[in-house]
Amino acid sequence: MDDSQKSNRDVFLPGAIIVAALLIAGALVYSTGSKAVNPPLGQAVGIGDQNLIDDDVVLGDPDAPVEIVEFGDYQCPFCGRFFRDVEPRLREEYVKTGKAKIVYRDFAFLGPESQGAALAAQCASDQGKFWAYHDKLFTIELLDGQEHNGNLSEQLFKSISSDLGLDTAKFDSCLDTQKYKAEVEKDYTDGVAAGVQGTPTTFVNGKLISGAVSYELFKTEIEAALGKSKK
Fold first, then answer.
1. pLDDT on residue 53
2. What is the distance between the alpha carbons of residues 176 and 225, in angstroms, rounded to a whole number?
3. pLDDT at position 86, please?
């Protein structure tokens, strides 16, 4: 990504994100709360000192003591559940207060629509709107409630850029040339190397949490990480 965008945090969106739509899962329901097979639901697995952040846009204070890294797919219904049910509370209680920062990385494994959405969000980061675009994609996909139905289309991606007030000529050029194809592919490769097998997979200071688990589980892990940071 553009160095000027990557070195700074994205503009924080005011207030908690509340999505009114009820989540309608795709064609299948997965008992583990994630797409594909992960470690047992909610299991926190340490991965040592591996750096999980590449040159990704940070939401919150870059120096926050707790690092929350999500590997997700914009088509994944369980990523939508995480966005709707857990992430707003994390932003409100921990990101806004400077205790944690959030990074989203693309694990776009569900097909061309997922990859297109990932490219579009990365293009939005060039104009400082990654998180606004990320939120819009998930909100729309939650309302749609289906996978592989053509909803996440080039027409939609360009429409969102216009709605968010982006320079549409720059955005369209970025999307049409697949400027961030290598970046999206690297996110996936880095995820595999870190043990990601499905989405959402989230790391709290290096501890892997699989699936769209409860806010309470995240709170437990974050509070434990905060406790360690004070020692």
1. 76
2. 41
3. 96
Q: Does residue 169 contact residue 132 with C-beta atoms inside 8 Å?
A: no
DSSP element (H, E) containing 185: helix 181-193
d(CA 98, CA 81): 24
Q: Are 81 and 212 in contact (CB under 8 A)?
A: yes
> What 3-state class would DSSP assign to 186?
helix
Considering the domain delimited by 3-229, tell me its CATH architecture. 3-Layer(aba) Sandwich (3.40)
Question: Given this model, what pLDDT does residue 176 score?
Answer: 97
Residue 10: its pLDDT value, please?
Answer: 55
Q: Average pLDDT of each block of 10 consecutive residues along the chain (231 residues)?
A: 45 35 29 42 40 83 95 94 96 98 95 96 97 97 83 95 97 97 94 92 94 94 90 66
- H and E: helices and strands count for the chain: 9, 6
Domain boundaries, the chain: 3-229
Report which of 189, 218, 204, 185 is spatially closest to residue 47, judged by C-alpha positions: 204
Cα of first residue to Cα of last residue in the chain, in angstroms, is 35
In degrees and rounded to multiples of 5, residue 156 shows phi and psi of -65, -45
Per the CB < 8 A criterion, the answer to whether 131 and 95 are in contact is no
Question: In 56-97, which residue ranges form alpha helices assigned H by DSSP?
Answer: 77-85, 87-90
Nearest-angstrom CA–CA distance, 195 and 189: 10
Burial (Cβ within 10 Å: 0-12, 13-18, ≥19) of residue 22: exposed
Radius of gyration of the chain (CA): 16
pLDDT at 27: 27
